[in-house]
Amino acid sequence: MCRKQLETEQQISFVKDQFSKKLSKKLNLIPVSSPLIVLDGNGINDDLNGVERPVRFPIKSQNDKNAVVVHSLAKWKRIRLKDYQIKLEEGILTNMSALRPDEDYSSIHSIFVDQWDWEIRIHKKNRTISYLKEIVTKIYQSILETEQKVFEIYPKINPTLPKQITFVHSEELFQLYPNHSSKEREHLIAEKYGAVFIIGIGSKLTSGETHDGRAADYDDWSTETELGKGLNGDLLVWNPVLKQSFELSSMGIRVDKMALLRQLEEREQTDKLKLSYHQMIMNDEIPLSIGGGIGQSRLCMFLLQKNHIGEVQVGLWDDDIKSNLALQNIHLL
Question: Fewer CB atoms < 10 Å away: N or C end of the chain?
Answer without folding.
Answer: N
